[in-house]
Structure formats: structure tokens, C-alpha cells
Amino acid sequence: MFAALAALTVGASVPQVVSAAPGVLEEITVTARKREESMQDVGLAVSALSETEIQRQFARDIQDLANISPNTIIDDTGQGPGGTAAIYIRGVGVADLEKNFDPAVGVSVDGVFIGSTAGALLRGIDIARVEVLRGPQGTLFGRNTVGGLINITRTQPTGELGGRFRAGVENYDTYYLDGIFNFAVTDDLAVKLTAAKREQKEGYYDNVTVRGDQGRSDFQALGANFLWNATDTLELEYTYHQEDLDQDTPALVNATRPDQVFCIAYGYCADSLDTTITGDRWGVAGGGGRPPAPPSFETNITTVDQIEPAFMDAFFDTKTHILEARWELTDTLRFDYIYGRWESDEDSLQDWDGTPELLYHTQRPGEWEQDSHEMRLTYDAGGALNIVGGLFFWDSEYESRMRSYIGFAVPGLILDIPQTTNQTTESVAAFFEADYRLNEQWTLTLGGRYTEDEKESRQFGEVNTLDQGRTTHPSDEWSEFTPKVGVRYNMSDDVMFYATYSKGFRAGGFNGRVASLEEAIQPYEPETIDNYEIGVKSELMDRRLRLNATVFHMQYKDKQEELQLPSNQTDTGQKTVVINPSEATIQGIELELQAYLNENFSVRANLGYLDSEYDDFVYTDVEGSVTDLSGLEFRRAPELTGTLDATYEWDMAGGTAWIRGGYRFIDDHFTNATNNVELANDAQHLVDASVNYSINNLQFSLFGRNLTDEDAYTHGYEVAGLWSYAATRPPRTYGFEVVYSFNN
To answer: Which of 50, 615, 641, 643 has its CA 20 to 30 A from that of 56?
Structure first.
């Protein structure tokens, strides 16, 4: 019966690649609009990679796949365990580990939106498709997609006995093993099992304080996927996935300027202001001390004898449950239901000062839970009108129990400051999107989504939201309608022009790092983006050349900014605030190319140009001074990004050999909102390559990433005149792997 599943899985959100003759580009099917369509027929800016293309990039997680899309930056900021994702599309994104801040670029896995940046880098071993949707996706994917969306789909059970098993080794004493195993229990029930293990025993960094390497990690994952063809018209699918990561706390380097306190008072200064990174980037001074046991809330650490010269450690564990029902009600009407639960448990003892001393360290155990329900109806009679509409329900809860260990505020005393933050979120939405074909050439698209959000924030510790006679914790509600209007013009079967207006909405909320009750009860407001874009998609030269282009203009309103400001209310003399002080304009051009130069030689390239600037960025600090940052550039918004990827493939000794080379250019850019020069990146030239041979069921590969060993900050932060710290890109890595597959 599984042979008949193809007809039913039209609504299964599993993008596919339609096979093509040698030397002809494959047709890529995507689910960017909650239904399967050819990527070339979708009137929005979207890039996609197939399962084969993903495997050929030897990606550890989705940050290794950022090169598929222009104007896209994906980094691990090193601020916490599990990978705190900084995903920026067209200069729009969030790079904060605090889960009170909603993402600005969404990540969706098998139709389930992931509401946290921590863990969003995703180390999936069974990914069938990655799609990068650029620009606001507020109509179909909702809140917190003002910049765009990373849409990830994993493979489904095949219903046949088969599998794929991989083993590899890399430098830094790294090895990995993973596998996918498919089988059928009955004619109607198929199962897919997955497992993965990756261990790095030698860190990238040399900790000069404890004289050892830092950056080790141990990752394990297990998954099970059940696909039941209940009737000829009803299909049920359940997925369970679990990941466990133990690691050294991510290393942060000292980037302190000569005019900052930690340089003046303690002598811990960055090497130079002329270059962002000098000398041995892999030498870090931090991570050299921690309390031997968590001190009580009442007892402060009073001497350095209570500090262990040991590595700090961290863990990040996740569990995912996804249940999906796909029901063909009639020949023209389909009902889809998706339930998703994603939960994480984490702890991290982090050195933020980047020095051998305990000046500012934190321990922050935390939990995140989210549940979502989406019900969707799709009407497609093969005529002029196609409609998709539905309802969406979301609730989440986050709690962080942070302990701050502060060694610079009071001479001879190390303060232990506890603060517990709890936030709950409820969101409901109704949405629709309709295509109406006016004639053979013109198609009109109309869509909209109405969203209501409610959040409640609770603070306990130094700041208590029930202080001063308050009987309820602060809460607030927001609502927004995000429309979409588009038109497509098919000039021919191979060339399509489109124009789109869309609006994005990022929810308001409450600051999770507060210095006073006043800040704790005062919410920040939502931000919105109005996006206007025109584009062309074409397949030329008998489908040997695919050329797409987009021009866009975006107006940012009430942009949320998290800023570090001086404060007389805290022991550290600084505080983090979240405000809506800015308006901005973003505009640019995106070009994408895929081509077969002959039957053996294929290339893929893209180029992004981005012009981002704050039109109005004015705020008042704690002393009443007005600061005007208008005219500054966006962080993580390089003017130019570009990728050139080439593959040459040929028959050899009864098998197939291929060589792949990839080049990525990232222009100079800032990593923080205030454009600090010590936290800026010079232009980067990244090169990856591999040599591969496949015969029968075996594949052998030699590969390398960042072969130019480029230095760069993946995150940078200035702490209100006290010090600056940064996280850095992994160095050159290389390895060898073997893959065995059968019926896969």
C-alpha cells in the first residue's frame, strides 16, 4: 500500500526533487507556501537545497548551509550551550541567548515553528530539504518571521527495508557515527529510526589559564518516525527526536578597549584597535575559575581560594514530538493538522569577562517548553482558484534561574546575585492565502493573518515583580494583521515575473534581564516590517541554466533594540534594556544562478547587495543624556555576500567520482548595534572542498571546511564601558568519511 502514498503526500510538506536527464537541472519542489509547488513557480524569494546537495556539503548544522542564500548570515554566537543561533536575513535577526526575546527569523522543522534561538542550529542527520525564505513570512508562518524563515523538512519513512550509515573522523580528535534505518511493520505502517553520535575530544581553543584545550563536546541523538496509512484518504505520522549535548562552555575572547574599566583597572586589554583579531585567536584567557559548588543565595564568595582553576561546562538537551494528520476530504479539499511539542533543558557556567579572574561569571540553568497546534484546509480543484487557510494556537513557558558572580564591584568580595525569570506566552492566529489565475499569464495572490499575543512575566530575586504591594505579575496583550498582496506574470513557460507586498510582525514582550521593578513591569512593543519586492525567475537553455533575481525595499518600524547602558541601580554599574527607539530602511538586490556547463560540470552561485541604515535611532540613558545613533549600519548586514560552488563529476573504475569546491565571500560588517570598531569583522573569504568516490553502496570522501582558516567574530558585545567580549568562528577543519547505503 505504500506504493500508493505518493498521491496522499502531496500535502505532507516533504519537498522533493524531480529527476532530470544528465546535464539538465532538476525541478525543485518546495513547501514555502504550505503546499507543494515548483520553486520556480513561487512568487517570493526562496532558495533551497536537496538531500543530496546537503550531504555533499558535509554540514555539521544549518550554519554550514548559509551559503545557499544571498544576504544570509548564520552564526553560533557562543553565548550558551547547544548553539545560540544568530540567523540574519537581509540584515534582520536576533543574536541573544535570552529566550524572552522572540526570534526575528523563524525556524520551522517539519511544519513546527521553533520559538527559541537556542538549539535552532539543528544537527539533523536525516534532512530532506532546507529552504531559505527571504523577507517577512507573516501570512502563512506568522509572528517572529519579520526577516524570513528557515524551513527544514526531514525524510519520511519509505516503507521499504533500507538505510544509510556514516562514519567519519576529523582533526581536533573528532569522530562521528550516524545512521538511518527504514523498514515496514505491515503494508500500512512504516518506521524510520535514526541515531547519531559526534564527539570532539580536543577543543579549538587553548585556555592559557588552565593550560589546556577548550571547546570539547559530546553530542548524541535518537529518533523514531512512524507513518501509518490508516485509510486510502487518511495518513497519520508521528515523530520523536531527542538530542543530548555535553560540552565545554563556549569560549569567549577578550575584546576590551583601552578606555574600558577592565583594561584600565586590571590590565586586561584586547591586543589592538587596528585589527579585530591579532595573534593567536585560539588562545583564550577565560574559563579559568568557578565556584567549587553553587553557593547559597545568602553567602557570597569572599576569597579567590574558593575558585577552582577548572574548565566550565554546559549541557543542552532537547525532546521533540510531532503528530501530523493528512486527510483528503474530497478530490479538491484536504485537511491538515500538525501538533508540535519542543522542550529543552540546559545549564551553563559561563565566563563573560574573558580574563583569568572571576570578574563576571554566570550560571544559568533553564527550561523551555512549547506546544503548537495548526489546522489547515487547502482547496485546489485544478481551476483558477486555490486557497489555503487555517487556525494556529501556541503556548510556551520559559524559566531561567541565573546566578551572577561579580568580582569587580566590591574590593575583596565576590557577589553572588540570584535572579529567576519566568515568562509564559499564548498566541492565536487565523490565516489565509489565495491564488486566482486571471488568465494564462496573470495570477493574483491575496493573503492575511490576524494574530493575538499575550505574555506574562515573573521575576524573583534581586528584582521581584510582586514587590511594592503588587498582587499580580505584569502581563500585556498585542494584536496585528499582516497582509500580503502579490501578482505573477508568466511571460512564457520558462520565465516568470512577480511583485509582492508583505508585512512582518515580531511580538512585544518583557525584558528578561532587569535592574529594577520599573523595568520589569514595563513591556517593550512589537516591531513591524513592510516589504516591497519585485523579481524574475527563469530557466533557460533547455533547463541547463536557472537564473533568478530580486530587488527589495523594506521599511522597519519600532525596531526592538537591546542595549547595554550605564546604571546606578545595579552592582555592576550597567544594565540591559530593550526599547523601541528606531526606524530603519533596508534595500538590496539578490541574484541566484544554477547551471550545467556540460553533463559533468555544474555550478551554483549567488550574490547579495544590502544597504541598511537606521533612519531614526535616538534614546535617553539613565542620566538623561540623549544619544543619537541615526545613520548607523545594521549589525550582521554586510554590503556584499556571495557564493560560488562548483562540482565536476565523472565515471571512474566502475563507480562515480566528483570534486566539489565552494567559495563564500562576506563583506566587512559590525557585530553589535552601536557599530563598535573593536567588534567589527573584516571581509572574509571562506573556502570548502571535497574529493569523493562512490561505488556500489559505498561512498568515500575527503573534505575540508574553512580551508583559508579565516578569522572572524561570530558575536560581539560591549558591556556599558566596562569591557567587551566576543565569540569567534571555528578554524580550519578537515576529515574523512565513509557512507554505506542500501535501498535508500
So the answer is: 641
Q: How far apart are CA 503 and CA 517, in angstroms?
A: 34
Distance CA 531, CA 590 (A): 15
> Could you read off the pLDDT of 364-382 as tens digits, one per residue?
899 999 999 999 999 998 8
What is the distance, to the nearest Å, from the Cα of residue 308 to the centroid of all Cα atoms in its chain? 35
What are the cell numbers at 384?
483558477
Strands 205-207 and 283-284: parallel
**Edge-first strand listing for the sheet containing 148-154:** 46-50, 127-134, 148-154, 105-109, 112-114
User: Looking at residue 528, what is its pLDDT?
Assistant: 95
Residue 383, all three cell numbers: 481551476
Hey, what domains does the chain have and what are their CATH numbers? 2-742 (2.40.170.20)
Integer angstrom CA distances of residue 210 from 11, 63, 78, 468: 55, 30, 20, 46
Nearest CA-CA partner of 104 in 137, 63, 73, 146: 146
Phi, psi of 30 (to 5 degrees): -125, 165
Residue 247: C-alpha distances to residues 315, 695, 739 (Å): 6, 37, 27
On whether the CB atoms of residues 95 and 636 are closer than 8 A, the answer is: yes
Place of cell 503528530: 323
Is-contact 284 206, C-beta < 8 A? yes
Say if strands 640-652 and 283-284 run parallel, antiparallel, or are unpaired: unpaired
Cell of 55: 550531504
Query: Which three three-digit cell numbers place residue 655?
Result: 563507480
Main-chain phi, psi angles of 679, to 5 degrees: -115, 25
**Cα 590-592-594 angle, rounded to 5 deg:** 180
* CA neighbor of 313 nearest in space, from 356, 351, 352, 355: 351
Amino acid at 257: R
pLDDT in tens, 653-685: 999 999 999 999 999 999 988 888 888 999 999
